[in-house]
Amino acid sequence: MDKNIFRYNNWLGWSLQTALAMVMFFCMSNYAHSQQPKIMVRISEIEIYPEHLEKYKEILKIEAEASIRLEAGVIAIFPMFQKDKPTQIRILEMYKDQQGYQSHLKAEHFQKYKTGTLHMVKSLNLVDMEALDMETATQLFRKLKN
Question: d(Cα 84, Cα 100) in Å, to the nearest integer?
């Protein structure tokens, strides 16, 4: 196996494991407090045209920060890109509930991001996710605190 492919596979596996661990942790918090609404988790898979990549990343960084700071319904907007294919963007999105997600779609900063980057996006795939083992997820994040 080529060294670069091996490194890429290891990095991608670690990134996905980290993202899924975060998902499970937050879902476990929701599960433990069953009176709370169900957390919505999504991974956005986005491909950017290479000539727009730097500008897109700049705009996305601003949007993600604003979403976390300004929106009570947003738990996480965590953008990442593949090291070997930087035009491949992945965003871990977590919302307190469906209403938090719907509010996010209407937020001024999100609308500015969406309309300002539409021509930069080659493809977009939204993948809704469910946690597999919420009990273990809380243990993972306790370890990260230490």
Answer: 33
Give this prediction's pTM: 0.70
Residues 6+ apart with CB under 8 A from 119: 52
For 38, list phi and psi in degrees, rounded to 5. Answer: -70, 130
How many other C-beta atoms can be found within 10 angstroms of the C-beta atom of residue 62? 14
Burial classification of residue 48, based on how many CB atoms lie within 10 Å of its CB (0-12 exposed, 13-18 middle, 19 or more buried): buried
Q: Are 75 and 18 in contact (CB under 8 A)?
A: no
Summarised one tens digit per residue, pLDDT across range 93-135 is 989 899 999 999 999 999 999 999 999 999 999 999 887 775 6
Q: Tell me the CB-side half-sphere exposure of residue 119, using CA atoms within 13 A.
A: 4
Residue showing tokens 């991974």: 43
